[in-house]
């Protein structure tokens, strides 16, 4: 018995795989491990790393906030953004984070950005930090 994992963003399916042995999710209340036969569950996810064990190999993906649904042996993750940790460019992520944080600070000073733009900037910064943490976790 194995799991099927799908990670979906507004742009479409980012990751899909069958024969997954285990999935570790960054749930809002702490990490949870999902194994075949897990009880049905819907949970909120915080930004962080999703660990995937497949064929004895560990893979890590960084995700933004979202939700996970576990039904039968299917784990569905709905998130704003996701990327394979191996594809993260540390310098690009650092630049994106710094740019977003600067824009947030400027907007707060001048109160010149609408609420939806502020949420977008916060999302960029949050996902950049999640990528950095996921990449650091993979190295350790």
Short synopsis of the structure:
By secondary structure, the protein is of the alpha+beta class.
How would you describe what is shown here?
This protein has 140 residues and is an alpha+beta fold. The chain folds into two domains: 3-85, F0F1 ATP synthase delta/epsilon subunit, N-terminal (ATP Synthase, domain 1, Sandwich), CATH 2.60.15; 88-139. The protein has helices spanning 90-110, 115-139, and strands spanning 3-9, 12-27, 30-34, 41-45, 48-54, 57-63, 66-71, 74-79, 82-84. Strands 1, 2, 3, 4, 5, 6, 7, 8 and 9 form a nine-stranded mixed β-sheet that branches.
CATH T-level topology of the largest domain:
ATP Synthase, domain 1
Number of domains: 2
Q: What structural category characterises the helix and strand content?
A: alpha+beta
Helix percentage range:
25-40%
Shape: elongated
C-alpha Rg (nearest Å)? 16 Å
Q: Which residue ranges are poorly predicted, with pLDDT under 50 across at least 5 consecutive positions?
A: none
- β-strand percent reads 35-45%
Distance between the termini: 30 Å
Instruction: Describe the main β-sheet briefly.
Output: 9 strands, mixed
The level 1 CATH classification of the largest domain is Mainly Beta
Number of helices: 2
- CATH-assigned homologous superfamily of the largest domain: F0F1 ATP synthase delta/epsilon subunit, N-terminal
Return the string of H and E elements.
EEEEEEEEEHH
Mean pLDDT: 90
Q: What's the number of extended β-strand segments?
A: 9
CATH architecture of the largest domain: Sandwich
Q: Give the oligomeric state.
A: single chain
